[in-house]
Write a structure and sequence with these properties.
- It is a single chain.
- The chain is mainly beta.
- It is built from two helices and 30 strands.
- It has a four-stranded antiparallel sheet. A four-stranded antiparallel sheet has the order 4-5-6-7, with no helix packed on it.
- The longest helix is centred in the first third of the chain and has 16 residues.
- The termini are close together.
- The N terminus is likely disordered.
Length: 359
């Protein structure tokens, strides 16, 4: 995924926006509430999914490394409306942020400097997918997997979904390598899938299927190597990280359920149902595995690595007695790449998706 790093100029604009915003008044004479904005170009974005059934709304949060500050619920503060139910995926691409809301059936396009909504794309009546699951951006487009079985292409100039392809039931988090998009087809609503769909960008078409382990959830790539994380059947077949060797061959590296990649290293979390929580990293070129420990984390919900800074983030559900809570506010912990704890940030309910600016 190729996304542009935010420069200092948009943050100057954001600072000017804060001044204007805090000095104006509503039409009824009530003053606006001052909104603080990030002041650094080194930021991470964290989506809280909230809880659809318990009517807890999702949110967009911004972690500013430069000031060691978390800016919570930025979209709602700026736009004075809900982001929507169950934010599921997001990318920062060019001067904008693109977010997919699973239960609200919308895609939100947001200015990356001011966090103002540019456009809300409504998918409720779409016959080619309406429930976003994963996103990746490349070549002037954002590609979104839809739970109904489609990969949709969003034109970042017209801000419209201009094409959709049938890729297989319940596709999850895709990855771009070269001029192809790799889509994991989990088919979790059927009997779990064992394939990934390979989609060419030009033309936008399904080229072929490749074999992957049971219940694939996420493709990972450093531009040269392709990996997939599959969750198995939640029973005797465990979640794994596998390297895709050819169309009909893969090599299992180890057990995992979440992962993030940068250059030659993959950081992984193995959090099996009813099993022992483990952390490890994998060096691609040497095949070396190293166990890691993150005792500050209660119940990991997401992991991400900054593509341009040595920052590793792990989000977590809090504990409510002996069980993780999906309703109480969670948190995100910042680490160095060797696993040294830096600091902990409070955040809302259901932190899951972590993404970054990139070069």
């Amino acid at each position: 995924m190729k996304i542009l790093k935010r420069k200092n100029l948009p943050f100057m604009a954001a600072a000017m926006y804060v001044i204007a915003f805090s000095s104006c008044e509503h039409n009824d004479g009530e003053p606006f509430i001052k909104i603080n904005f990030p002041t650094s170009s080194d930021v991470a974005y964290i989506l809280n999914q909230g809880s659809y059934g318990d009517k807890i709304e999702g949110s967009l949060n911004v972690l500013d490394y430069g000031s060691s500050s978390m800016f919570e619920n930025m979209f709602t503060k700026v736009n004075e409306r809900s982001l929507g139910s169950t934010p599921q995926c997001g990318v920062a691409y060019g001067t904008r942020i693109y977010l997919g809301m699973y239960e609200s059936h919308t895609i939100e396009v947001i200015d990356r400097s001011t966090f103002r909504s540019i456009k809300q794309i409504k998918l409720e009546d779409s016959e080619e997918g309406r429930s976003p699951r994963g996103m990746v951006a490349s070549g002037g487009h954002v590609y979104i997997t839809m739970n109904e079985g489609y990969l949709s292409r969003l034109d970042t100039v017209e801000l419209e979904v201009d094409a959709s392809l049938k890729v297989g039931l319940n596709p999850e988090t895709p990855a771009v390598m070269g001029d192809r998009i790799y889509v994991p087809v989990s088919a979790w609503s059927a009997d779990y899938g064992t394939t990934g769909s390979v989609v060419t960008m030009h033309p936008f078409a399904v080229e072929k299927e490749i074999d992957v382990p049971l219940n694939p959830q996420q493709f990972l790539t450093n531009g040269n190597d392709l990996f997939v994380i599959s969750w198995g059947n939640y029973g005797d077949e465990k979640g794994v990280l596998a390297k895709v060797v050819s169309d009909n061959r893969y090599e299992v590296v180890g057990n995992a359920r979440m992962g993030t990649i940068r250059d030659n290293t993959i950081y992984l979390i193995d959090n099996p149902w009813g099993g022992e929580l483990k952390y490890w990293k994998y060096e691609i070129s040497s095949g070396e595995r190293t166990d890691m420990a993150f005792p500050e984390i209660d119940s990991p919900s997401g992991i991400g690595i900054d593509p341009s800074r040595d920052v590793l983030l792990i989000s977590s559900f809090p504990m409510d007695g002996v069980y993780p809570s999906y309703l109480l506010p969670g948190y995100v912990c910042e680490y160095t790449l060797d696993g040294k704890f830096v600091r902990k940030y409070a955040i809302g309910a259901g932190p899951a998706c972590i993404f970054f600016n990139a070069d």
